[in-house]
Write a structure and sequence with these properties.
This protein has 323 residues and is α/β, with parallel strands linked by helices. The protein has helices spanning 13-20, 33-42, 58-65, 91-96, 103-114, 132-142, 185-189, 211-217, 269-275, 288-296, 301-322, and strands at 3-7, 24-30, 47-50, 70-73, 118-123, 149-154, 165-170, 225-230, 236-242, 258-259.
Length: 323
């Protein structure tokens, strides 16, 4: 069984997809303790390092789990995303000057030291803006990977009931075959009971909302939003959107909340998780806002699995070539 190390593992969406594809999840690295607890809960067989990646050395990972076949991870996207109105103006400053952006370089450092057969780093497409694409190629080349591919994939093409375009930077080409049909909102959440009823589904508790706001959301039609705001570059983003039941949902973000297509209420953490393809036995730990953040910051599970199956195919080819 091929082994995986997940840097910036979060709640484990990326790892979950690899686990479903038959990989052994050996280790996760996460600096926030409650989020690491979520990961531990869902991957009881994995080693978990609760630490800032800047303080972690590859030797420590190797001592715990040996050399992994695959290293995956999604460094924070805030320095790069257009949704952040405060991101730095010059693209290269986002990678080399922004302290959070520099965490990408620590992903590269650990990959370079561990030398896995395959690495896959997830982020927002704007991480390749301007000179950033060449800068990332250069960094990975210095780490020992001359071939670097920028694989742009849409989560909805692989069975995720929400839109999400992300780039997966890897030393192999990753191009899974898209599914013919898309999963829409009502197919994903329609069978869940009313959160106010008696049930045993984890993370499916009602989300409080003020009577004043409740009055306003009651007037929203499918696809309409209560809040609109501008990100970097003047792009308009929305919040408190009433989902259209027969379409895919917009991008799930930790800071955003969706309104149920038919009920005048906010979606629960579990409903958001369903929109990201998480199975109901994937538990989220911590306060409610932190749970929403864990879901919104994850790699959608169906997309992660589609990527994992491509990686597995490549690893098997490598093995076959060696034999």
């Amino acid at each position: 069984m091929f082994t995986v190390v997940d840097l910036f593992c979060g709640a484990g969406g990326f790892s979950r997809g690899f686990k479903e594809a038959g990989f052994d999840i050996a280790l996760g690295l996460e600096n926030l303790k409650p989020v690491a607890e979520t990961y531990m809960e869902n991957f009881p067989g994995a080693e978990v390092i609760v630490e800032d990646i800047q303080r972690v050395r590859a030797e420590e990972i190797e001592r715990l789990v040996g050399k992994p076949d695959v290293v995956i991870g999604g460094p924070p996207c805030e320095p790069f995303t257009k949704a952040n109105p405060k991101r730095r103006e010059k693209p290269l400053d986002r990678l080399y000057e922004d302290p959070i952006g520099r965490l990408v370089l620590h992903f590269v450092r650990i990959v370079g030291d561990l030398k896995p057969k395959v690495f896959v780093m997830e982020n927002v497409p704007s991480i390749v803006d301007g000179e950033l694409r060449n800068a990332l190629k250069r960094e990975f080349k210095e780490a020992g990977y001359g071939e670097v591919y920028f694989n742009f994939l849409r989560a909805e093409d692989y069975g995720t009931p929400s839109h999400r375009l992300r780039v997966f930077i890897s030393n192999i080409r990753i191009k899974p075959k898209p599914l013919k049909e898309r999963v829409v909102v009502i197919e994903a959440i329609g069978d869940l009971p009313d959160p106010r009823s008696i049930h045993d589904i984890p993370n499916h508790e009602p989300v409080p909302i003020s009577p004043r706001r409740l009055k306003r959301i009651a007037k929203l039609k499918w696809g309409e939003s209560l809040i609109r705001y501008r990100g970097a570059g003047g792009e308009v983003y929305t919040n408190l959107t009433r989902l259209h039941p027969y379409k895919i949902a917009p991008t799930v973000m930790g800071s955003s909340r969706f309104i149920h297509p038919f009920d005048n209420r906010l979606l629960t953490v579990r409903e958001h998780a369903r929109l990201m393809g998480f199975p109901d036995d994937h538990i989220f730990i911590g306060g409610r806002d932190l749970q929403f953040n864990q879901v919104g910051e994850a790699v959608p599970v169906p997309l992660a699995k589609a990527i994992a199956l491509e990686v597995k195919k490549k690893l098997e080819e490598m093995e076959h070539g060696d034999s």
